[in-house]
């Protein structure tokens, strides 16, 4: 704010001076113009800017470190996958991260550091309402610090063409009050809820028999795959397939039965060969992973 005020007021003063000089020059005679002109070029064109810019530089450099300061303790690592977001929360002092996917929840009024990378292709992490785009580059870790002030529901999007389903790679961002954030993180750290008897339990067995757990982690069960998104608390996320479909039973059926149609070149096989009862069971199981 201080910097902005100085720039605006300083700019206005300079604009007024330049205007005044122009009016004066138009009114005075040629001899006077030449005398005054040389002094103005050396004074106003060289000496004043040199001092003003040097002073501004010295004054504003320390502000840049403040802009780049680390977060208040919470660090989030986000990996750009093809075509979804792997998200790991590192609360202060944590030794192992809490992994989730395709959803970013942030505490309001706190600085959060977000560390970005990618295992294969370049993506760009962009939450327009909070910060500029930052590239996610294989073999490098880039970072940004966000400090959202008010609770809000925002949207993020991949901003670098990364392959066929680049356009189907967004994510919801929920900014919540700090206390609600702590509760959310605690729930997120917990193991998956046990499947309820009935269709959900049958779905859990299918999940394991069909090999879903070879790619997906469901903490607290035998499923510990790391290729696809962590599904431990899948039902509490608002979307399926990185913002591609709303997280509702019929959309989930479409996702499981026609995966590659919903999301071209997706890295998950389609399970269209399953009958309706089997799909129903899987949907019941996934809907219980709160
Ligand atoms: Cu991408």
Summarize the structure.
By secondary structure, the protein is an alpha+beta fold. It is built from seven helices and twelve strands.
What is the element layout, followed by pairings?
Blueprint (H helix, E strand, L loop, with lengths): L1 H26 L2 H38 L7 E7 L2 E7 L7 E4 L2 E4 L4 E6 L5 E4 L7 E3 L5 E5 L5 E7 L11 E7 L1 H12 L9 H11 L29 E2 L4 E2 L2 H9 L1 H4 L13 H12 L3
Parallel strand pairs: 1-5, 4-10
Antiparallel strand pairs: 1-2, 2-3, 5-8, 6-7, 6-9, 9-10, 11-12
Helix pairs in contact: 4-7, 5-7
The site of copper (II) ion (CU) has 7 residues, from loops.
Report on the structure:
With 290 residues, this protein is an alpha+beta fold. The protein folds into three domains: 2-67, no CATH class; 75-189, Immunoglobulin-like, CATH 2.60.40.420; 199-287, Immunoglobulin-like. The chain is 39% helix and 20% strand. The protein has seven helices and twelve strands. It has helices at 2-27, 30-67, 178-189, 199-209, 249-257, 259-262, 276-287; strands spanning 75-81, 84-90, 98-101, 104-107, 112-117, 123-126, 134-136, 142-146, 152-158, 170-176, 239-240, 245-246. Strand 1 and strand 2 form a beta hairpin. Helix 4 packs across helix 7 (276-287) and helix 5 packs across helix 7 (276-287). It is elongated, with a radius of gyration of 28 Å. The two termini are 43 Å apart. The relative contact order is 0.10. The mean pLDDT is 92. The structure holds copper (II) ion. Residues 80, 83, 123, 158, 162, 166, 169 line the site of copper (II) ion (CU).
């Amino acid at each position: 704010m201080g910097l902005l005020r100085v720039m605006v007021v300083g700019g206005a003063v300079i604009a007024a001076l330049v205007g005044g000089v122009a009016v004066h020059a138009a009114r005075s005679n040629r001899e006077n113009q030449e005398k005054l002109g040389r002094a103005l070029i050396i004074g106003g064109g060289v000496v004043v800017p040199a001092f003003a810019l040097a002073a501004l530089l010295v004054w504003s450099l320390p502000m840049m470190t403040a802009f780049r300061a680390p977060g208040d303790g919470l660090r989030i690592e986000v990996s750009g996958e093809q075509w979804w977001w792997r998200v790991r929360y590192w609360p202060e002092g944590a030794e192992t991260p809490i992994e989730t996917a395709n959803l970013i929840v942030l505490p309001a009024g706190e600085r959060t550091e977000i560390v970005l990378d990618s295992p294969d292709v370049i993506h760009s992490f962009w939450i327009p309402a909070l910060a500029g785009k930052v590239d996610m580059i294989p073999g490098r870790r880039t970072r940004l610090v966000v400090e959202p002030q008010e609770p809000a529901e925002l949207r993020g999007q991949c901003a670098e063409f990364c392959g066929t389903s680049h356009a189907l790679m967004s994510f919801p961002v929920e900014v919540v009050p700090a206390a609600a954030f702590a509760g959310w993180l605690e729930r997120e750290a917990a193991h998956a809820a046990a499947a309820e008897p009935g269709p959900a339990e049958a779905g859990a067995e299918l999940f394991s028999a069909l090999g879903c757990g070879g790619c997906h982690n469901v903490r607290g069960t035998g499923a510990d795959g790391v290729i696809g998104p962590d599904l431990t608390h899948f039902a509490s996320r608002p979307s399926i397939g990185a913002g591609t479909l709303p997280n509702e039973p019929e959309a989930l059926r479409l996702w499981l039965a026609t995966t590659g149609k919903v999301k071209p070149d997706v890295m998950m096989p389609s399970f269209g060969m399953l009958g309706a009862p089997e799909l129903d069971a899987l949907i019941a199981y996934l809907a219980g992973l709160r």
